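Researcher: Going back to the complex we discussed earlier. I've cleaned up the inputs and rechecked each line, so this should be the final set. Can you rerun the prediction on the complete assembly and write out the structure?
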Amino acid sequence: MRFKNLNLSKFGQRFCSETGIWNLMDDLGKAMHSGGQKLMLGGGNPAAIPIVRDIWRQRMAEILADQALFDSMLGDYHTPQGTPEFLDAIVKLFHNQYGWKLSRENIAVTPGSQMAFYYLVNLLAGEQSDGSFKKILLPLMPEYIGYADQGQAKNIYQSYQPQIDYLDRHTFKYRVDFSSLKLSSDIAGVLVSRPTNPTGNVLTVDEVSRLAQMTKDAGVPLIIDNAYGHPFPDIIFSDITPVWDERIILSMSLSKIGLPGIRTGFVIAQPEVIQAISALNAILALANVNVGQQIITPLIASGEIMDICKNHVRTFYFDRSRLAIDHFHSQMPDSIPYYLHKCEGAMFLWLWLKDSPLPTRELYERLKQRNVIVVPGEYFFFGLDDPWPHTNQCLRINYSHNPQMVKEGLSIIAEECRKIY
Ligand SMILES: Cc1ncc(COP(=O)(O)O)c(C=O)c1O
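Model: Rerun complete. Updated structure for the full complex:
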């Protein structure tokens, strides 16, 4: 119990209890400041890519040299929807790249995309004006830990177990199990991250079009969290074109291109959703942070951001992921029934220790004792109706930081896994 002397409201109790995301971000922040003592394979901090960092530095220098721009960036509130130049740049990029017919009315900036999900799930789900209660459907567990505690109401999610495909002796892939999925009248929307945090899964084109059709038939939105996808940061290892229409709410983030500190995300959606987000921005934050929008606007308007991501960000993560996968396999005996999820994007390896008798929360503690920080898989399963042993058998490992550190951490993880079986 962290609050002994503060009488918290229901809202306070709900949002200030021990949550996975709080523990995760706390561990992340402390490990980042541990002076290199910890092997940081937890958290979702993007990697430091020197050539990309140089681009942000150069943009800052350009802004500093432009007095009017600099003064406006620091000195002005812009509209709760975002700066006009940024909105126009997004319209142009998505029109040029994918032919989408967008206007400014289709885009709203948010203080980080994390905030966009808080807005969206609570705009749609929870108690309705007619007294009924609606939920957000998550068609494929495990899903992003950051959604788990965002509901103002409890039990806001209805989730489904996936189908498991074994791809080879030590690789598997989750797929949406359409045979069990039901979009009943108490569902207010469907939410997926693609690529998925924590697994690195990328829902197939077929899975997305079936979900789009189901949501269209049910008259509810499909929310796609594109924090790792095309066109930026492009941490997705296949050429999958993003999809959007008026029923889809597409969320994007600037964080994983290396800018988590500027707390900027944006949503592409039909105008009424954009107005609702702008209204919430005004009440909760007045306006957005200008810095990220100013840094990135010219790179988006010119399309340069696409080349940066494709040539530097995507290749960087792809190479790092292969190094980590190869190293982990080299440390694990073939006889152990362990599986890595097929790594199709994002910055994580998702390890499944099949039939492990040790819950991964305990494995996490053992690893922490050895200065290796990972995230136990339990946090990524929420909203399921039935208990499922699989939820205690998985671990999320961030593979993207210093390769020496990642290798060392993976070797220790493998050593601890060998002790379990
Ligand atoms: C899938 C996913 N969505 C959204 C977010 C939120 O990111 P941000 O608020 O930095 O845009 C994250 C962060 O790790 C994420 O992994």
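Model: Worth noting: The pocket of pyridoxal-5'-phosphate is lined by residues 44, 112-114, 144, 146, 193, 197, 225, 227, 253, 255, 260, 265 (CB under 6 Å).
Researcher: Good, that matches what I expected from the previous run.
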